[in-house]
Please model this.
Amino acid sequence: MKMTFIGATHEVTGSCTYIEACGKKFLVDFGMQQGEDMFENVQVPTAPGNIDYVLLTHAHIDHSGMLPLLYAGGFSGEIHSTVATSHLCSVMLRDSAHIQEFEAEWRNRKGQRRGEDNYEPLYTMDDAIGAIELFVPHNYDEEFELCEGIKVSFRDAGHLLGSSSIIITITEDGVTKKIVFSGDIGNSMQPLIRDPQYIDSADYVVMESTYGNRVHDRPTDYVTALTAIIQKTFDRGGSVIIPSFAVGRTQEMLYFLRQIKEQGLIKGHDEFPVYVDSPLANEATDIFINNRESCYDEEALGFVRRGINPIAFENLIRTVTSDDSRAINDDVRPKVIISASGMCEAGRIKHHLKHNLWKPENTILFVGYQASNTLGRGLIEGARKVKLFGETVRVAAEIKQLPGISGHADVNGLLDWAKAIKGVQKFFINHGDAASADSFAQRLREELGIDTYAPYSGAEFDIASGEITIDAEPMPIPKKTLNTANMSVAYSDLVAAADRLSRMIKLSDGRANADMRKLTEAINRLCEEWQLD
Model:
């Protein structure tokens, strides 16, 4: 019995753990690395064709996104998940493949003009469909035999529709050990889905630490705050455009909007339309509805039992085709448009921004986290002009942000979940950046007095003996450096100036917003003068 840590070790994405037991080889999650990559990951120590199973905690791409690549490499085993996760993956993996193929096509068009070699997508739509066909769905809390000696069940983790913690009981050579993988543990009091369900006992726990050193702010009264923004915008003749993540956040917004409409909170605009303009969001919404009995919380189920769909209402218009999407901007009524992507980096939202950003009567409302260097983050930070489809667009609309209802438990929620599990011999802390993982490991040691270990990629653990057999060292990814050997003096001076500008930007945090906006405008003017995107 051996466990090897592959991904999401001192990092937040790319979850993957490899286990050998009872003559079988299997993975728990096989996720895509997203955002900045700080550490090198070791390879899974066997070929894809030798892997017998994958156990999947939930559908988010940082946990499931590499499954099509695994299939492309020769994997033909079973992928076990909850029913709702299998349904979500059927649309999310196809969407991911579409993005991979689209990016490859775009890069190849550019590369051909420069005489570059063809760029191959990470995987194709056929690979995604092949992986989807390998899913074996299960209900929550129904234990099944994965193979002789290994039993598995899924417990609701309260993070996303269908999300789970995985309970694995392994018996080999007379030794039985119970291992729990937390998956991503949800925040309490989220709309629609249930709170995280606790687990009573385990020998070893592999646990996430996304917010292992942070406490969430007090929850926003979403209905009141959202009502005020919509009312103010509609009264001045504008529309509210909401960039939203297609799975999870969009359905939450529909839940709140149904309540606003039911209670008649918007005055003078009773029949206002709400458009959901994202094929992925619309498919995901159907999956939420179809899995209501197994995944909704009691409040949402109460609506269902009274014959009310908690994420549907009058004048909800779900667009599918590109023609339907374009027609939205011909609707002159005050309206709400919910569209993906949530950070405005791709998808139909960019078209809606192009049509609506320059109109002062409109509001662009952000309801989720905006990562650095994204269009969404730039708008929140006060950009006056943005580039959309090669065209400069003036930002005149009001830019607002409602703090999202985090899908992750904060440090207090993580501690409560951990404290409920009795008999734990060792906690393994993953799925958090270095500061968060190490901080949470220390907190667990201090409060529970239990052995705790935050592994780096490549660490190995003997499940039977309880010993760490390989204590892997961190492998930071080398930062790219410029080859200055053949630079001209002028170019060397330009690089030095760029470094100086970069240092100045980093030191600007904390300055007055007006000063930072002036600097932003100066840099944007320079880029426009030199015809840079």
